[in-house]
Amino acid sequence: MIEIAPQQLPTLSRWFPTGSPGLGALAEHVLTTGAGYWWADRLDRPRVLAVTCADHVLLRGDPSVLAPDALARFADQYVETPSRFWPALGSAFERVVPWERMLYVHQAQASVCLPRMPRGVTVRRLTPEDVPALAELDSEDAWIHASWGGPFGLAASGHAWAAFTKGRILSVACTYFLGSAYEDIAVVTVPDHRRERLALACVAGLTADIQARGRTASWCCSRDNRPSRLLAWTAGFRLTREYVHHATGRALVREVRATPVPASGVAAALA
C-alpha cells in the first residue's frame, strides 16, 4: 500500500459512504481535518483503499490483489473491514484479535438526569487556552486528542467539553470523528475521579453542541466495556447495531530464502 494525497483520491462514494455513524465518520473526519492518511494499492484506478486516523483503519476493496506484505503498515492498529479481508489480515500479522463492538446513537428525546458537580468543579467547552491542561493528561489518556493531531488540534476545534478543577482536567468528552451527519464521540476520565459522574456532564454539554450543529452524536465501545455501555445509555444513547473490528499485532516478517544449488550444478556453471 502506498500513501496518496487527498487530491489523488478516487470518488469515495462507493468506498466510504458519507453520513454514516460510528467509525463510518472516520473518512469524512480525515477529509475535513487533515488529521490522518490515505493509502491505496496503486495510484491509477486503485483496487484497495484505506484511511487511517488515531490507530484506526477503514479498509475497503478487493483483497485478492494484495501482495503478501501489503497490509504490514497497519500493524498494532484497529482495522474495520468487510469479512472478505479477514484471511488477508490473518496472514499479514502475528496475531489478529476480533473485537466485538457496539454502536449507539444519541436520542434527543431520551430523558437525561444531569448530575450536580462536586464543589470546585467546572464543566465547559475547551478553548485554545486549555492546550497545556490537555497536554498534562497522563500518557494512557492522551489517545483522547489523537484524532485531532494532538492537544492543540482538539482544544482549538470547538468539539470538546471538559471538567476542570484548579486548572486540571478531570474528564474530557470530544468529537473523535467528525462526519457530515454524525459526530462519533469519545470520553476519558482520570482514574482518581471516576464514578463522580463528571463524564456524564461533559457528554451532555457535547451532545447539546452536536445537536445545535444539526448533527447526531454516536458512540462506539467494546461489548465487554460495561461502564462505557452504561454511561452511553444514561447519556441518552441507544444501541443501533453490533459489529467486529480487529486488533492487529506485529507484521509477519517474510524472509526470502535462496534455493539450494547442488554442488554439481555450481561446477557445471563454472565450467
TrEMBL record:
Matches recorded under Pfam families: GNAT_acetyltran
InterPro entries linked: Acyl_CoA_acyltransferase, GNAT_acetyltra_YdfB-like, GNAT_dom
Transmembrane segments: none
Domain N-acetyltransferase: 121-259
Originating species: Streptomyces goshikiensis
UniProt-recorded name of the protein: GNAT family N-acetyltransferase
